[in-house]
Structure formats: C-alpha cells, structure tokens
Amino acid sequence: MAKLIQGKRIGRNARLRVGCSAVIFDPTKERILLTRRRDNGLWCLPGGAIDPGESASETCIREVLEETGLLVDVVRLIGIYSNPNTVVEYRDGNRYQLIALSFEAQVNGGELGTSDETSECTYFSYDQIRTLDLMENHMQRIDDALAHQAEAFIR
User: Fold this and answer.
1) What is the mean pLDDT of residues 23-27?
2) What's the rounded mean pLDDT across residues 57-77?
3) Residue 122 pLDDT greater than 80, yes or no
4) Does residue 151 carry a pLDDT above 80?
5) Which of 133, 134, 126 minimizes the C-alpha distance to 45?
6) Is the pLDDT reported for residue 2 higher than 80?
7) Nearest alpha carbon to residue 60 among 27, 111, 96, 104
8) Cβ atoms of 47 and 20 closer than 8 Å
9) What is the mean pLDDT of the chain?
10) Catalytic residue, candidates 111, 120, 136, 151
11) Are β-strands 47-49 and 31-37 bridged in parallel, bridged antiparallel, or unpaired?
12) Known catalytic residue: 120?
C-alpha cells in the first residue's frame, strides 16, 4: 500500500511518475464511475501510469479497460495535476511526485466488471462520492470535471 508524504518541495527527493485518470459519467451525466482498489480498499477514478511508448490518451483507454472492462473514447482534458509538496511512497521504498492528466471519457462498449486491481466498480452521485473513503487527490479531479469548464484546469 502506498502512502502520501507531504513537505515543502519534497518532490525534489523523488522521481517523477506521469499518469492518467478517467472521469466517466453515466448516460444521465448525474453519476460518476469509481473503482475500489484491491490493494488499499479506497475508491478512485480508473487510471494509472503511462507506459513507455504510449500516449496519454492511450494510457487512459488502456487503464479503463484493464480496471473496469469498459471500452472508452477520450472526450476532453479536464486538468493537469502536480504538487511538488506531496510524494507517494510505495512499499518498496520508491517515492514519486505524481503528474496526473485527468480526462473525461465516454463508454463506447465493453462490459462493466472488476479486475485483478479492482474489487468493485460502481456509479455514484456527487453526494454519495462525498461520503466514500476516496483517494485523497481524486476529489479535486471530480470537482473540476463537474465544473464543465471548457479550458483544462492546471493545478
């Protein structure tokens, strides 16, 4: 299980890791798909790290398929998130400053289900999401998606 460590410019002592997350609305645009991670039990947006030789949109599409069984199209960039004052430390001792690109994605096929990484996949209303044990950095991405701003947020 990973833990967040905070400190002034602590990112200087870490490696960079770039990843993507997907905000997937239900057809009514009233609920958002979240997955529950098997490793720590927290709810989160589907997503993960960019692999070498892969574009950001390809990563988003691959990670959603791997974690949920859904095929998606990337619709728009919601925001870019980086914080040099927070790093993630993994069990193996590796520390990363995360740079995340959050996209809105639209389902175009597949069948919703779980994976080796996810124990549940469910659509939630905003009010329900506020009560969940959610990965700390994902609430900002959800709030930004719900703002329906044309320009991407840079945070």
Assistant:
1) 97
2) 98
3) yes
4) yes
5) 134
6) no
7) 104
8) yes
9) 95
10) 120
11) unpaired
12) yes
Would you say residue 1 has pLDDT above 70? no
pLDDT of residue 111: 97
Partnered with residue 22 across adjacent β-strands are 103
| Segment 66-84 mean pLDDT | 97
CA distances for 32 relative to 20, 86, 118, 126, 154, angstroms? 16, 26, 16, 8, 21
Q: Which residue has the tokens 């996949």?
A: 121
3 state DSSP class of 17: strand
Task: Please classify residue 111 by burial: count the beta carbons closer than 10 Å to its beta carbon, then call 0-12 exposed, 13-18 middle and 19+ buried.
Answer: exposed
Q: Provide the residue count of the chain.
A: 155
Residue 103 to residue 119: CA distance in whole angstroms:
22
Q: What is the pTM of this model?
A: 0.92
- For 24, 49, 102, the CA distances from 69, given in Å and listed in that order, are 13, 18, 19
What is the rounded end-to-end Cα distance, in angstroms, of the chain? 25
Rounded Cα–Cα distance for residues 16 and 55 (Å) = 16
CB 31 within 8 A of CB 125: yes
